[in-house]
Design goal:
The longest helix has 20 residues, at 3-22. This protein is an alpha/beta fold and 258 residues long. Helix 4 links the parallel strand 1 (83-87) and strand 2 (107-112). Strands 1, 2, 3, 4, 5, 6, 7 and 8 form an eight-stranded mixed β-sheet that branches. It has helices at residues 3-22, 42-48, 53-56, 93-102, 115-128, 166-176, 201-205, 214-223, and strands spanning 83-87, 107-112, 133-137, 151-157, 177-190, 227-236, 242-243, 246-256. The chain is globular. The protein has one domain (3-256): Vaccinia Virus protein VP39 (Rossmann fold), CATH 3.40.50. It starts with a helix and ends with a strand. The chain has eight helices and eight strands, in the order αααβαβαββαβααβββ.
């Protein structure tokens, strides 16, 4: 994809997610999972894609925006004391849930490229007294602002599909993982490719038009050097309704850096 188009997509993503971050409440207004756009609260939208209500009660409620397409933490097998990076951390929902698990001996860093999301996440962390969570500005297609080989786990929820170069993004995720480290991510994939002339900036920022065919998405992970790539969960998005003529699915994938 040409550089100008990539920049247009990123500007649209920042604008749209900046608006979401400034809202007091949302209704699963972007990157939502199956049926979540029909629910009445962000917490309900989160529950639809797999978050446990009991877990959601333990984190700042302002971190729950009702966006995302799965619950990758359910499959991440996080351990106390681990270092975790949440890519595209938004207002902090997964970062705070992870922080509760790793405890004071662990560390969680959330990375996002939208200033408004970072401001909201940092405010949530401060008000709730989290000392083991930090939020940094970064772009996975440029460089995540952390050292090589420094994390046990990378999590992400409906973020990689927003990128224009998936292989480059996964290579950057692999760079920051320790040998033996893993990633557990939720994302959207499609049943077929989308012609370039059909791409919409708004639908790309809503996690639809950037979704690759499933096998191409998995292949991009392998090309980045990951091993043991596994699809752990899969469900149809929007009850199987086609978007731009494509059927979209939400998947959870786990892979390892050897």
């Amino acid at each position: 994809m040409e550089r100008k188009r990539q920049q247009e997509i990123k500007r649209t993503i920042r604008k749209n997610y900046g608006k979401i971050a400034l809202q007091e409440t949302t209704k699963g207004s972007a990157c939502c999972g199956p049926d979540c756009c029909s629910v009445e609260s962000p917490a309900q939208a989160a529950e639809v894609v797999g978050y446990r209500p009991s877990d959601l009660k333990t984190i700042p409620q302002a971190s729950i925006l009702g966006v995302g397409c799965g619950a990758p933490l359910n499959f991440a097998d996080i351990q106390k004391g681990e270092t975790v990076l949440d890519l595209g951390s938004g207002a902090g929902i997964d970062a705070f849930l992870a922080a509760n698990i790793v405890g004071k001996s662990g560390k969680v860093i959330g990375v996002d490229m939208t200033d408004e999301m970072l401001a909201r996440a940092r405010r949530n962390a401060k008000e709730a007294g989290y000392s083991n969570v930090e939020f940094k500005k970064g772009d996975v297609e440029e460089r995540i602002p952390v050292d090589d080989n420094s994390f046990d786990l990378v999590i992400s929820n409906c973020v990689i599909n927003l990128t224009t170069d998936k292989v480059k993004a996964f290579k950057e995720v692999r760079r920051i993982l320790k040998p033996g480290g893993r990633m557990a991510i939720s994302d959207l994939v499609a049943d077929r490719s989308l012609p370039k002339e059909s791409i919409s900036l708004e639908k790309w920022s809503g996690c639809i038009d950037g979704a690759l065919p499933k096998e191409e998405y998995i292949d991009s992970i392998r090309k980045a050097g990951f091993k043991n790539v596994q699809v752990l969960n899969e469900q149809l998005y929007m009850q199987g309704q086609k978007v731009n003529g494509r059927k979209i699915s939400s998947i959870v994938i786990k892979a390892v850096k050897e």
